[in-house]
């Protein structure tokens, strides 16, 4: 009696161990096996299949005991505050190509319904020194890996996601503007009055119930809260490029994933590391330690004439107002 | 003999009804406050578009005014606590006024910072979602703490006086007497009560010094934790503490002069006290001058490009008139005048006190505004008006209202509290009289 008990207990432990090993198998492997088992449903039950555990040992389990694990995150249920798993979005801006066509800014203003006086995306007329050549420098939010704005936010309204995006929860923002003071890139804008986004914002609210669905993080704008470039999570989710990237006629903007080491401007895809190395890529105000996700390629071997851009340059306007 | 003497003392020091001038003064403050409240309601409805702040000058006089209030509230720590711990007995007639100013200023600081919020309706978020890494949360913690310590430090020493006033007003104003009685917590003056009271005050005195230092330092860190040129300075904490001493003692001098005149307290607050306070003020001014030299001269010496741009705007650019007014008017002139014995007479002291306070207010404006108008990237693609900042009518009305409310709190407290500690004065006079007796 005692022996049987002992045996069955041992069996139970063994079985449990095996099961435990099985569950420890990575999600990727599991999904493959599941498809395998489904394909082999005609094979009589009590059929054993072989599995490899994470430490490399082969084990046999009854195929009927194999179930799909639930830990593989699907894109659909991703949390707006956490972002997409295993992604790290970056941008590369090639200053050699920019001639201040401002199509990026127009597209950005349009798709984000910007109604204030300060565009999220700006193209600066830059000149480092009197004896260096002037150039055009588009700036977006740098989506820093050490974001000064996130550090100082008292209520966690602006947050850093694991996919690299820095976004704003404008349902929580108290409007203290500390983040604006903290940002060395002056990228943040404030809704000083009720943003006049009209029907668009109503439409957005109806379509998306809450403001903070992944696609429309921070949209529509809310009076008394801070806004900024969001790297277009609504486009990323559809596997599309941010609006500034697609709108640029000169291929200035490259967008991509640092983990995949690839960036694209829509017409050409490049290795990020190679591109940065070959063209001496740099980041703005690197010395501040903010670790931006936006890289710049210096304006050398220019493909465009600086002068051409002057015709679009306006000192005091970055958002076109409806007449 | 002593009995009769203390009767006169109580009569002199008990709160009195305001005269015509006092009533006009109070109503003026109320009217300014109400106008400000109306302007604020308008701001809440329309948004902060009614201010002249913009995405570059993202903070304006609401913040500099807040910093001024915080600085002024330091007077409680610096005079009451420090003078008490150092056994400077000349403090007796001025400590209560200092505590009243301290309480009024720190309460208004708490209110002023809310005026700057874009979403005051989400105030509770600070408690629900607060994160310790943000300097604003440090402020949210220290300001209420300082308010409580300051209130208690005003209240505990009042207990014996409230008991005296209860008796004093028993026949003349029974309702008032009843209130004093309730507030005096059945003070009888027994040895046990005195022991507890002394012990409590001592604890508060020890507490308010670090609390005051923390408060001023956090205020400085609101700026120095950011990258901006002009704020990114390791000097800031000490700079703010010394600046706060100047603002606080300056305000104290000015208020004492007015109260002395209005309540005819020349026998209690004498030239001797002004002389001592003058020396105190000049000391704080000299320390502040030292930190100013650190703050402006060293960056000038190393001449980093951004620093030089910033300092030139102050020294010779757009803000030069204001900058030199603050340095010369708010610091140099008071130092020179107060170094002379004649400069420490009541009237010149009053003028210097006012000058120091006005200078201190504008000093905060100079700390906040010019830095914001010189960001790292150039200001481009925004309306021309965004290159500058000067407060709008709304901002002036609201800010004036906060200043008026601060004075109103001081006025109301002065109306109902004995501004010079009665019991303590009586005790001290007795000691003096006894000494005289023994000497003669």
UniProtKB/TrEMBL annotation, chain A:
Q: What does the UniProt keyword field contain?
A: 4Fe-4S, Iron, Iron-sulfur, Metal-binding
Annotated GO molecular function terms are: 4 iron, 4 sulfur cluster binding; metal ion binding
- Pfam families the UniProt entry points to: Fer4_11
Q: Does the UniProt entry include the keyword Iron-sulfur?
A: yes
Stored InterPro entries:
4Fe4S_Fe-S-bd, 4Fe4S_Fe_S_CS, ET_IronSulfur_Cluster-Binding
Q: Which residues form the 4Fe-4S ferredoxin-type domain?
A: 132-163, 164-193
SUPFAM superfamilies for the chain = 4Fe-4S ferredoxins
Keyword Chloroplast in annotation: no
Task: Report the protein name in the record.
Answer: Molybdopterin-containing oxidoreductase family iron-sulfur binding subunit
Q: What is the lineage of its organism?
A: Bacteria, Pseudomonadati, Bacteroidota, Flavobacteriia, Flavobacteriales
From TrEMBL, chain B:
Identify one Pfam family in the record: NrfD
- Subcellular compartments: Cell membrane
* Homology family: Belongs to the NrfD family.
Provide this UniProt record's keywords sorted from A to Z: Cell membrane, Membrane, Transmembrane, Transmembrane helix
Q: What is its main location?
A: membrane
Q: What is this protein called?
A: Molybdopterin-containing oxidoreductase family membrane subunit
Q: Cross-referenced InterPro entries, in alphabetical order?
A: NrfD-like
Q: Which lineage is the organism of this entry classified under, starting from the top rank?
A: Bacteria, Pseudomonadati, Bacteroidota, Flavobacteriia, Flavobacteriales
Give the record's membrane topology: Multi-pass membrane protein
Where are the bilayer-spanning segments?
Answer: 21-41, 61-85, 97-115, 135-158, 203-224, 236-259, 280-299, 319-340, 347-367, 396-417
**Can you tell which superkingdom this protein's organism belongs to?**
Bacteria
